[in-house]
Amino acid sequence: MIPAIVPVNESERLAALRRCEALDTAPEIAFDDLVLLASRVCEAPMSAISLVDEHRQWFKSQVGLGVRQTPREVAFCAHAILQPDLLVVPDALKDERFHDNPLVLNAPHVRFYAGAPLVTTDGQAIGALCVMDTVARPLSTRQAEALHVLARQVINQIELRQAQRRLVQAALHDALTGLPNRVLLMDRIEQCIARSRSRGDYHFAVMYLDLDRFKVINDSMDHSVGDKLLVAVSQRLTQSVRGGDTVGRAEDDLETVARLGGDEFTVVLENLRAPADAAGVARRLLTELAKPLPLNGQEIVVTASMGVVAESGNAASAAQLLRDADVAMYRAKAAGGNRFAVFDPAMHASVTNRMQRENDLRHAIERGQLVLEYQPIVSLQNLKLTGFEALLRWQYGPELIRPEDFVPVAEETGLIVPIGRWIIAEACRQLAEWRRAFAALPLTMSINLSRRQFADRELMSHVSQTLRETGLEAQSLQLELTESAIWNEESARVMLPRLKEMGVHLAMDDFGTGYSSLTCLRDYPLDVLKIDRSFVSGQGSYRDAVAVLKGIVDLAHNLQMRAVAEGIETMEEAAMLQSVQCDEGQGYLFSPPCNVETATAWISGRLAATQAA
After folding, report:
1. Which of the listed residues 122, 141, 172 is the one where a domain comes to its end?
2. Would you say residue 90 has pLDDT above 80?
3. Cβ-Cβ contacts under 8 Å for 1 (sequence gap 6 or more)
4. Which pLDDT belongs to residue 1?
5. With a threshold of 0.90, does the pTM exceed it?
6. Domain co-membership, 86 together with 188
């Protein structure tokens, strides 16, 4: 007997076999039918779908063999996968490769064999569809053609099941991390609720976890690094839940780690010995998460806020449990983060308060609670003041709320449209006042626009009317927009050229943090490229930082745009930007965002210094 050689692509072939997920699976009618059909068409008493594994051949389906697997060294199909075409053995006793093969000398006494390789769409032979007989015989041309066709059908069935598994995986799992998604999570929680109602000793818990300051981390790097961080966090969560100390948990403990979206994760713990034991698991998870994560050559520390709901049969629904865990999580975040809070019904009062705050936002304009702060923009060549960027704040009682804490709510509810109109009117009114008081300075005003504002049909008329009422030239107003605000927005494609025709300047904000910025530069009539802080901070080597900044500035200049850098905090950063001929900049090095009075004093001081010089 001469065993088959190992194919040169064996590792790739075995990987393809594993991807098929067909080994050691239950019988299926579709495959049984194909094997039976091959047996009948080829008039052979034995037929099989053989999958050739590393040390064995395993029969997905078989007729007349009576076994599910054999060692690979005796497998005829191990030879068939080496063939570009059919392997036909008319008489095994006369073939030196098989004449003393145990399958020939003993049951099932194979004398005749014909096998068609099962070749996947990526070219890997994972096995063979074969027919066998106990007597020597030929294989007719018609039978050979039929065996080829049936082998292709076997592969089609295997790959169809692969596609079906991928669809199920996509429907029930998060694409980025591979964790269960909300749909699968809710099903798991409902199963837990059903078990807790039928078993008095069954306890489980739901944990809602939100990363602290993830947006800051994500905005300081590019989004691909943020994605890698989310994957690393998901892996650490999974390893910590499964492999760590099983505080207060039974031996047959189960768990589900799911991603709800963004930086939000959920953990479901089952078979707790007592509901209160979930707190021990929560402490351990927070400790593990806070350990530095190696990412892109540096260590990143990320913490989380976690809400915990422990249940033992009283939950009304999965949605209620998830809501309660979410409420508890916000309590933990409000307390400073990097901690957990166990849900208490009294926490619903805080949710009511939050809803009240959202309602108060609807009346913030008429109550005079919205205010603007202004951050100076200076020429990086001579450090002269060129203008300001208007930044929204909400004076909510004694608290000055920053936009990231209420603008998402305003966008979701549509309130950003009237708020945006107010910003344009107020910022232009203030600019007109400054230009009258400081006529020697041709100041400009930069204002951010959101995605929802492009759907406002009155945006054009409001901008035009505001410019007329304040007496400002259109070029003194600069509207800033992010790539995400205009990407695939038909309203933006219509609105931006009209604003440009009016004379208003348009700026691409946070350049380099999106996925298709060059496409936006090509498709939209922009005047200014605002370089994101993540590039200005010079992460990595100085040489690399300068090269990247020079590339961005040169790109802007070649497209007849001005380059404006954001987030300048040190003299070294300013010098680096000057060296690459960046036009303008803003940041704490020059001034943080400030109120009208401070900004007015800042202008006076700059003007006096300029005149003295």
Report:
1. 172
2. yes
3. 74, 97, 98, 99, 100, 101
4. 84
5. no
6. no
